[in-house]
Amino acid sequence: xxxxxxxxxxxxxxxxxxxxxxxxxxxxxxxxxxxxxxxxxxxxxxxxxxxxxxxxxxxxxxxxxxxxxxxxxxxxxxxxxxxxxxxxxxxxxxxxxxxxxxxxxxxxxxxxxxxxxxxxxxxxxxxxxxxxxxxxxxxxxxxxxxxxxxxxxxxxxxxxxxxxxxxxxxxxxxxxxxxxxxxxxxxxxxxxxxxxxxxxxxxxxxxxxxxx
Amino acid sequence: xxxxxxxxxxxxxxxxxxxxxxxxxxxxxxxxxxxxxxxxxxxxxxxxxxxxxxxxxxxxxxxxxxxxxxxxxxxxxxxxxxxxxxxxxxxxxxxxxxxxxxxxxxxxxxxxxxxxxxxxxxxxxxxxxxxxxxxxxxxxxxxxxxxxxxxxxxxxxxxxxxxxxxxxxxxxxxxxxxxxxxxxxxxxxxxxxxxxxxxxxxxxxxxxxxxxxxxxxxxxxxxxxxxxxxxxxxxxxxxxxxxxxxxxxxxxxxxxxxxxxxxxxxxxxxxxxxxxxxxxxxxxxxxxxxxxxxxxxxxxxxxxxxxxxxxxxxxxxxxxxxxxxxxxxxxxxxxxxxxxxxxxxxxxxxxxxxxxxxxxxxxxxxxxxxxxxxxxxxxxxxxxxxxxxxxxxxxx
Lengths: 212, 396
Ligand SMILES: NC(=O)c1ccc[n+]([C@@H]2O[C@H](COP(=O)([O-])OP(=O)(O)OC[C@H]3O[C@@H](n4cnc5c(N)ncnc54)[C@H](O)[C@@H]3O)[C@@H](O)[C@H]2O)c1
Ligand SMILES: [Zn+2]
Ligand SMILES: [Zn+2]
Known about the structure:
heterodimer, A: 212 residues, alpha+beta, Alpha-D-Glucose-1,6-Bisphosphate, Chain A, domain 4, seven-stranded antiparallel sheet, two-stranded antiparallel sheet, 9 strands, B: 396 residues, alpha/beta, Quinone Oxidoreductase, Chain A, domain 1, Rossmann fold, seven-stranded mixed sheet, six-stranded parallel sheet, 13 helices, binds nicotinamide-adenine-dinucleotide, binds zinc ion
């Protein structure tokens, strides 16, 4: 830095690189481009909770069905591996995952190691500028199998959006102890296009209950 | 239970639907004792707000008796009497902590829809489209209230429902409009729209120290009501009346210190630009009719404040932003941060400083609601506020 500006009374120490690679040498870097059949998603949320607590919640595999859409079970199969089952409509998708990095209070990374899903992901917990809470950033990369894509299109939630929604649910659960929902609200006759609208609004994906 | 349902643009029906149930730990079920039809409901009735679905239950202004609470609600119990704010807030996100309750991060299950339209999502609202949460509204006999440990205001005194019902929306909305107007002692404040929100904005401007309030509308009974609480009135529809000139004439050419737009996106207009907006919205090239917003920007004095409680939903055309910049004005707006105002305003009611029930013109049943929506929109008969008793079989 030059000496052109010597007073920055409220400024935080400037990070040069950030988790999930949103920042490189002090410069914003967009998420990787989608190519070769790979889709990338990066999303973040500011959560009013300590990084360690958030890390623990994310790490609690048994609790995953409480906040991740359509996940019906996650079973630990060894110290570093787990088996995942996702149910979408009447289709079931299963895969195994392996933990690649596990830094308490800071970062978790994983990848799939067989089954119907090919994905890798990372979640990072960082203090926000000015201590406004914890910035949780998720970076995921996946190759969609034909089956997965078909299921997702049918239910109206594209898999990128599912990552965004899951982080939103995670934040709500961490901050309030529950996940907001309105899907089973009483209503009058929906008429002919009701189903189409529900699909467009993403309301065919059951909101996770917040309890496992 | 019985509920007033949106079945399409200009189509409202009272139907028998399922009773609501507790879904989350912090929910409560309220047995509704009084509810009201709001100016905001007209934007749904007229099809201006997207993502409504046939069968949606209307209504966001209601109060009642706690019927049942979830295990997470410790401050309320069955039998408590409460008024419920129309914005739903969690109490623990960054925005709730900053007391910006209408921007709550955690109360809109369909946040992605609003994110797509607005960049970020605001809080969930009762009975106000799927984009705003898809929650069932309160023009019904029962309602589910999420985050019931944060929103509902307990009424411990024996004040009748009608005196406290409007704490659910329009009184705080009018009050925040006046607060957003940044009124200083000696100020002249102009208020467009003498509907319920306008009435409470006028009353609140006085409570906050305005020296003079100028109220603008075309409906005689509403102008009369505004005069009854101390405002000077201007009828914009009278021949030869230009609102800009009227406001200059009444302020020695300076213009009002603050302007409040309590009309919103369905403003009427007598001028050519009104026709322009009707054509453009019909062609879907514009979503809102910002006639009042344009006028208020033109009219406010240099360095003055424009406060906008009137709802806007989408894309506006021909907004004189150059005038706003040229005069260096401040604009403040948004859904009301209800939770900040309910308690202090209840205290003002208890002290007898204001009796909000003065605006009520009609008391009806749920079955009469569909017909009254038309009356409320067309304003051909004198109608200032419609209150519903959801348990009455015949009108009082
Ligand atoms: N910000 C919030 O949180 C919030 C809450 C409640 C209501 N609102 C909004 O406030 C607005 C008013 O609500 P209301 O219940 O009083 O509605 P209302 O429909 O009863 O009142 C609107 C009034 O504006 C008048 N009007 C129309 N065109 C005009 C013009 N060109 N100049 C002057 N007056 C004009 C009408 O004659 C009517 O009296 C609505 O847009 C409503 O959605 C906002
Ligand atoms: Zn309202
Ligand atoms: Zn909140």
